[in-house]
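ASSEMBLY PREDICTION REQUEST
Request ID: AP-0331
Submitted by: J.K., bench scientist
Number of chains: two
Total residues: 472
Priority: normal
Notes: Please return the full assembly, not individual chains.
Input sequences:
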Amino acid sequence: TASLDAKKTAYGQEEKLTSYEDVTSYNNYYEFGTGKEDPAREAVLFKPAPWTIKIEGAIKQPKTISIEQLLKLVPLEERIYRMRCVEGWSMVIPWIGLPLKALIDWAQPTGNAKYIEFVSYNDPRQMPGARMSVLDWPYVEGLRMDEAMQPLAILAVGLYGKVLPNQNGAPVRLVVPWKYGFKGAKAISTIRFVEKMPTTTWVKAGPREYGFYANVNPQVDHPRWTQSSEKRIGAGLFAGRIKTRMFNGYDEVGQLYAGMDLKKNF
Amino acid sequence: MTRSTSILFDSPVAKIRALKALIWLGACLPLLRLLILGFTDNLGANPVEFIERSTGTWALVFLLFSLSITPLRHWTQQSWLIAVRRLLGLWMFAYACVHVLTYLWLDYSFDWADILKDVIKHPYVLVGASAFLLTVPLAATSNQRAIRVLKQRWKTLHQLVYVIGVLALLHYWWLVKKDVTEPVIYSVVFAGLIAARWRQGLNHRR
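STATUS: Completed
Returned structure:
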């Protein structure tokens, strides 16, 4: 994999990184199969280049942006983020990317843009998991506009100083560290500014289990998994669990949800 | 040929011994594999989940093996097969024990408050825990003395294995997020074994 330069930031300097091996071999990416090991094996032939993202909806003019243009939009940054999966495990990943806000500013949405919808690439010929109807393809995720503008939300194009591996969502994916991992749409092909809250893939699959907001919240349990604690990947057989923190420890996002009932809006 | 002479000629004792040795060997392999993978750091990114999945699956497999003995006996007319049923059932119990121990120790570090919360709050854990608790009396009474003492009640007690099977399958169905292929396969096998017993039961009565 080609290396990728980025300026260091203060984010997550205190954290112990999850190994490159684990980050790139234990993935939830159903377009390449439902097993955690499937994506690393099945995404080998996936072609992340050439790549353009369509940007449409409530903007002055529909646009496309190539991955090369995106990389030059603003200087790339390294952000070390915790990633908490809804299944009760977590990793610490040194992402390389750019603030989502930079792309939004470039796209110039209109006042009607209340939400932003991310559509993942879907090609059953290249993606064996996409031939099965386990989820309603293509994969759709979304954020409220103010969430999308939050400086923590990034579009990741690399990790560990390298170009993003296919199994991690190459060439470009969303990373929203205070939300459960499934919010991070991979291989983004369309970004749409919309007025109404998008119906996201996992909400469609199980509205009782998955919500639009999906903020990491140790007080609101998933019907199947405990959310009060988590297993850190790579910590070893006998490491036990660590306590899950509200908003995955990113307290600065709290103001986005002031006055909201987070039990209802899970 | 009468039954007694056939037993004499085929030497069921030798057959039982050979099959039991085979079962011991086969049943130890998955455990051995986990140990080797564990010591060589090859259990993947989430080793605890790996062990939980593997031991849970093997417990289910041995449950299905033990349920297959009775129909198999009827089809093949090899009545000596009954002699290995207990061994298969006990291996199910052994894998269930490692499965539960992995959960209690490696997953939750014996944090009883968290464990209790997890069991009560999550239906899939609750049915799994119930299935395990029900296997305990079966394992405890899997000896000749218990059979003698309990008489007809022993049979009734050991019919709990069907309940355990249903609970274990439910546990599996509810824990997978979306792709139910594997639980479907195990459920079909389970249903097939139950159907076979039911049919053979009917034939008997006729």
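REVIEWER COMMENTS: The first helix of chain B runs from residue 3 to 10.
SIGN-OFF: pending second reviewer
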